[in-house]
């Protein structure tokens, strides 16, 4: 893949240049936080985030995904509309995990 190739993930198209850090990942779920302009990807090996613009933008202008702290298959993912630091993730067994710090630490299997 070169920088002009497009990758389909669900209903969203990503130029391959924005896939750095996800090259070997299978994307199972996506969530977008418009308050911080951040995209989250749930994969078979955990959660990754990409700051699209603004203060959280990575040094390479938002082309590298950052791995976050949950290491499980993430089949569903959501960002709280009331507080963008709160994320919910659901694994293949239906266990719900909650983060209150933007995905860096996780607690509570429910």
CATH class: Mainly Beta
Residue ranges: pLDDT <50 for 5 or more in a row? 1-13
Domain tally: 1
* Tally of DSSP helical segments: 0
Evaluate the radius of gyration: 13 Å
Following the backbone from N to C, one meets helices and strands in this order, namely EEEEEEEEE
Strand content: 35-45%
Strand order, largest beta sheet? 3-4-5-6
Within the CATH hierarchy, at the fold level, what is the topology? Answer: Thrombin, subunit H
Proportion of helical residues: under 10%
Indicate the mean pLDDT: 76
Shape category? globular
Structural class: mainly beta
Distance between the first and last residues' Cα: 39 Å
Produce a short descriptive summary:
This protein has 110 residues and is an all-beta fold. The chain contains no helices and 9 strands.
Plain-language structure description:
With 110 residues, the chain is mainly β. The chain is built from no helices and 9 strands. The strands form 3 sheets. A 4-stranded antiparallel beta sheet has the order 3-4-5-6, with no helix packed on it. It has a 3-stranded antiparallel beta sheet with strand order 7-8-9, with no helix packed on it. Strand 1 (6-9) and strand 2 form a beta hairpin. Residues 1-13 have low confidence and may be disordered.
Draw up the topology in text.
Layout: E1 6-9, E2 12-15, E3 27-33, E4 38-43, E5 46-51, E6 66-67, E7 76-79, E8 87-90, E9 96-99
Antiparallel strand pairs: 1-2, 3-4, 4-5, 5-6, 7-8, 8-9
